[in-house]
Amino acid sequence: MLTAYTAETYFGGHDYSVLNTSLRNLVEYPALAPLAQLFHHAVSTLAASDAHGHDGLCYRGMKLPEDVISQYKVEKDSRLNLFAWSGFTSCTSDAATCIGFVDEWELNTVFVIETGGPTLRPLKLEGDWSQYPEEKEVLWDLGQQFETVKVERTTRAALPALLGAPAAGDGPAKEVVVVTLKAVDRFHDLVLDLFADGGSLEEAERVVRLRLEREARRHGPESAEVADCWGSLAKVFMQGGEYDRAMELHRKDLANKLKRVGPEDASLAPTYNNMANVFWKQGDHDQAQERAQ
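Request: output the structure for the sequence above.
Response:
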């Protein structure tokens, strides 16, 4: 499937082709969702590996109307300043190649994408993975979210210098917008949206446990990443009114974290606060106040 996607991206020109479009519009093609999710899981696992993950910058050229470009803004301390690719997004890891795309297809926007660490990076498609290794292509995961770092309006002539690529002639004077994005992980912020969207407690629990299993495989069962999952699962039970189960998991989260930091460490404040909320819901206001302090 990966080979088919790459080949279709190359041979399909720059109109949307069947597989690309279908993977990017799972709402319109629900039958493809299980297959796409399986593919996404495989891509995520490979991208986290030293052998197949790409750690450098990625470049994606697009032709966007001004009203879409204007949505990319830098807002300090705002969790809403995020964008997500709605499908598997192929990029190039070579700035000069991206500039060539800008010229060939008269594109007006370049995305410069920064990875967010070993678990938030794209899969390399070069070498054995790609039929066209000279493109140095990389592939981002389904639904990966990005924070807008900066937005710059420049000209095609100044674009190589801005991207750190070799100059190739003067280039046309047309405007090009360069949007720098950084991959972010908002899983623990967004998991409770399952309730807001009409999801069930069981579905939210299933999603968090899948994430917990993945983090345990990647980082070990005593890792901070696993502790975060216990905390998120506790919030799910808290939201569902299962306070005893929520407290059990908050205690597990706390015990995990105490293996790395002391009981007075500032990083434990959110966990103590979450436990205080559970005590308050259970009517134990003294314990709630003690934890909150």
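The longest strand covers residues 145-155.
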